[in-house]
Amino acid sequence: MDEVKVIEIKKSIFAENDKDADDLRKELKTRGVYLLNLMSSPGSGKTTTLVRTINLLKDKIRIAVMEADIDSDVDAVKIKEATGIKSIQLHTGGMCHLDAGMTRQGLDNLPLGDVDLVVLENVGNLVCPAEFDTGSCRNAMILSVPEGDDKPLKYPLMFSVCDVVLINKTDVLPYFDFDMDKCREYIHMRNPEAKVFPVCAKTGEGVDVFAEWLLGEVRTWKK
Amino acid sequence: MDEVKVIEIKKSIFAENDKDADDLRKELKTRGVYLLNLMSSPGSGKTTTLVRTINLLKDKIRIAVMEADIDSDVDAVKIKEATGIKSIQLHTGGMCHLDAGMTRQGLDNLPLGDVDLVVLENVGNLVCPAEFDTGSCRNAMILSVPEGDDKPLKYPLMFSVCDVVLINKTDVLPYFDFDMDKCREYIHMRNPEAKVFPVCAKTGEGVDVFAEWLLGEVRTWKK
């Protein structure tokens, strides 16, 4: 397997995370770097979706990925092998989320002058990551069909803070009681402005629509 | 819908959670009440599995359920409607886990003199709940097939602290790349003693084997 850089993230010393996140966002704007914070439950397909998205965009913009994980580096290796782009692993040492200070530690290990888009794959968790602004330009999350259409009712904050919700694993819709219309309705109860993209990372279906949206976001940010 | 009792749980004031958990476990032993702490990702099927298990056991032992959730009470209502047993909802107010003090607050709202088994359905999260001993007799977790067989590699602590792992949604095995043997191997890397039960809560397949194990546990505890 390819070797990837693994960074041991320390708990942030900044007490005021919101201020630190705003400062980071301003710095990224100045440098023309767009940061997407991608969240989800464990096993919803973040890494596979990312691989598809990156392969659609990597000839148009320069992309890097930061994979947050408690312990392993399987995701960073997978991204690097499947896309060839710069990918680093952030070890959170058991921490259940990333804040702006921790995100900054990761960014310091990327060649930001050569990057247009950084995707932060947050820890697989629908609770804690929603509570901390990472300094990203946008928050996105993936809800997979097998998890059920009621998740916006149970994890309200996560769905409130996300600008984009990808509904993944649409290929298994016939085998689960998942009502797409009801799910959209629940998502919009939490955030009326949220964009919802049904995708199937396994087959690639729908990922192009999300990739097109992301490309537009990055280009607008860099203006 | 049936009304269920909803308890707003406050953050525990006990600094020494491990000691408090041990004290709680001793008290439960004295009272002949077995507490099972059930953990999983969001959407892995905890509530459906519980309904099946309770319906297999409720004529043999007296059961109560405490449903921990950030905000909603859909799970407690579902349990009550589908099984008729005593079910209460614990609102964690955004907290991502339960500790022993919070568990005790829930138990104080149950008629423990009339109960043999209490199941605590923890917050859907593979990270934080693993870090806090709730005072339960055993920790169990559910991993569902769509989440992937690699989860023990990514969430090591959760699999280390669990005595039992239920592998749920076996009915959709044909549609996912999930290697049951590999998954068992990864689980046993984290905890060589862990019992692994493949189940399908939707059809009921395999749930009887888990229920039988649980019945034996409760009877041994009460001796």
How many H/I helical runs of chain A? 8
Please provide the count of β strands of chain A.
Answer: 8
**Structural class assignment of chain A:** alpha/beta
Question: Level of helix content of chain A?
Answer: 25-40%
Rg of chain A, nearest Å: 16 Å
Oligomer: homodimer
Instruction: Output the strand order for the largest sheet of chain A.
Output: 1-4-3-5-2-6-7-8
Averaged pLDDT of chain A, please? 92
Shape label of chain A: globular
Question: First CA to last CA of chain A: what distance?
Answer: 38 Å
Poorly predicted parts of chain A: none
Largest interface, Cβ cutoff 8 Å: A-B, 34 and 34 residues
Strand content of chain A: 15-25%
Largest sheet of chain A: 8 strands, parallel
Order of helices and strands of chain A: EHEHEHEHEEHHEHEH
Describe the overall structure.
The structure is a homodimer of 223-residue chains. Chain A has 223 residues and is of the alpha/beta class. Chain A is 36% helix and 20% strand. Chain A is built from eight helices and eight strands. Chain A has helices spanning 17-31, 46-57, 74-83, 100-107, 151-154, 156-161, 180-190, 207-221; strands at residues 5-8, 34-40, 63-69, 86-91, 117-121, 138-144, 164-168, 195-198. The first copy, chain A, has an eight-stranded parallel β-sheet with strand order 1-4-3-5-2-6-7-8, with helices on both faces. In chain A, strand 7, helix 7 and strand 8 form a beta-alpha-beta unit. In chain A, helix 2 (46-57) runs parallel beside helix 3 (74-83) and helix 2 (46-57) packs across helix 8 (207-221). The model of chain A has no long low-confidence stretch (mean pLDDT 92). Chains A and B meet through helix 5 of A and helix 5 of B.
